[in-house]
Amino acid sequence: MAYYKNIRPLSLFIIGFILILTISPKFCMAQDIQLANNATYLGEGRYEWTVFVSAEKAVLDKIKYVEYTLHPTFPEPKRVAANRDDNFSISAKGWGEFLLRAKVVLNNGETIPVEYWLQLKPQENQEIITDSPLLPPPPPPKELIVENTSTITKGDRWEWRIYIVADDRTLGEIECVFYILHPAYPEPIREVCEKGSEPGIGFFMADMAWESFTVEVKIRFKDGRTEFHKHHLTSPFPGEMK
């Protein structure tokens, strides 16, 4: 009986030691991998943010890719980043903070789960560990505006073409544009959901007019946002006032 009492603690120690040898490398890696983010305020309560892996060079070299899981309200909540040069970063725009989950996949096939609370307000004295400066966040999108062209066709009639002007990234976030014309038109509400292929402009709609008027524009984004604009058609006749 005394023999078993003496051998059991020793066996448990050996088993525990083996488990430590097996688990500790992955545990140490998990301790070395953290996420961080920066954020830029765009106005109207919206932010553009970039989240990335904050780790030493030797640790970053062991990462194959990172799979991020965003809040389910994002159009594509799962994003994969495989670029070592920008610390496996992704960028997006939104209004609120949320718990972001990531799966860090190593070159040897192991995976390390990481959770991170995305912060939209600048954090003072936040320590970011990186072996090289992080690429600067993408510039905020240009202001979205409505424009038109116009051409004289016959007599006092003229043809106009209305469209949205913005950077291509912002245009790609638009789902549909609704142009609300003067009630004298047979179909005063026109829906356009095709962006077109021209860079920097899109969602074209054309018709005829005899005099200038104001077009109300409703822009519906893919993430559910809605913007309203007004645009007074520019006439081809010189000197006509808006």
What does this structure look like?
It is built from 3 helices and 14 strands. With 242 residues, the protein is α+β, with helices and mostly antiparallel strands. The strands form 4 sheets. A 4-stranded antiparallel beta sheet has the order 4-3-6-7. Strands 11-10-13-14 form a 4-stranded antiparallel beta sheet. A 3-stranded antiparallel beta sheet has the order 1-2-5. It starts with a helix and ends in a 10-residue tail after the last strand. Residues 1-7, 20-24 and 123-141 have low confidence and may be disordered.
Question: Helix and strand layout, with pairings?
Answer:
Blueprint (H helix, E strand, L loop, with lengths): L1 H31 L1 E10 L2 E9 L2 H4 L2 E7 L8 E4 L8 E5 L4 E8 L4 E7 L27 E10 L2 E9 L2 H5 L1 E7 L8 E4 L8 E9 L4 E8 L4 E7 L10
Antiparallel strand pairs: 1-2, 2-5, 3-4, 3-6, 6-7, 8-9, 9-12, 10-11, 10-13, 13-14
Short overview:
By secondary structure, the protein is an alpha+beta fold.
Radius of gyration: 28 Å
Name the helicity range.
10-25%
Q: How far from one another are the termini?
A: 103 Å
**Anisotropy-based shape:** elongated
- Strands across the major sheet, in which order? 4-3-6-7
Q: Give the total of beta strands.
A: 14
Biggest pleated sheet? 4 strands, antiparallel
Order of helices and strands: HEEHEEEEEEEHEEEEE
**Strand composition percent:** 35-45%
